[in-house]
Here is the input.
Amino acid sequence: MTDTSRGAIPTAITDKLTYEKIRDAYLEQNPEQHKYYGLQYLDDFFKGMAVRNITSDTLRRYITHRRTKDNVKDPTIRRNMVMLRAMFNQARADKKLQLHTVPHFPMPRDSEAAGQYIEPKGFAKILTHLPENLRPFFIFMYGTGCRLGTLQKITWDMVNSDCTEIKLPAEIVKSRIPLTIVLAGKQLEPIAAMLRKMFRDSSKPVFYSTNFRIEWSRACAKSGLGTWNQKTRTRTGVRIHDCRCSAAINLIDADVDSDMVMKIGGWKTQAMLSRYNVLNTKRIRLAMVKGGEYVANEMHG
Here is the structure.
């Protein structure tokens, strides 16, 4: 009663909270996270643990456990921790925990970059070695930065009448924020024209994607941008996810405002976008030439 009168959460409530309770409450609000592969590792380590016993020291033990026993890299562990932190934040939003009862999360380092850049000429080479019915799938990803999982879930009921706009509902977008993709410009207008000629079935996927992973690997190998071993079904080189990375870089290099790039690709923060804005020697050289020309012009202006 004293806790309630001063607006605090009674200890009788917080003491009964377990990992499973805050996990289930979080998953109820975010059902798509049931499929997250890292959930099993959180379940194994924190099984039956009282929330009050999940301290910063406990979290450090989890990090050490994953590094040593599971031989997992820091970026993967970080994604596990992000989900656990979201569970705590959900419990706090539900007034089951107070701010001071949420532990500090000692987050492992993230990966430096979210991919590598596929230059337009390189992407053009890959396209020539892809089956014709798969080209629109990859052109769309390279042009818009759409996530692979989201792209596969785009259905005809999301496409407007003239096929120039696709409205993605929140449930298929990772950020859980609805997103509108506009098919405009030299790269994407042909895709819109192609869609206008196709039969529309509101429940069916818009883009053909059968066997897309193997065909991508084969095309990259033939383009000199990777290798493909048919016998072992293993590959190296540029990844499909690099199309998303490349879309961000192409927009930034075309002087599109970074805030607009974030909205187009669905990045929630500048830090997230920065992970996709990877550097290479060619981009650094172009930046230095551009900076040098500016200084020279100003000096002699």
The chain has a mean pLDDT of 89. The longest strand covers residues 165-168. The chain has 15 helices and four strands.
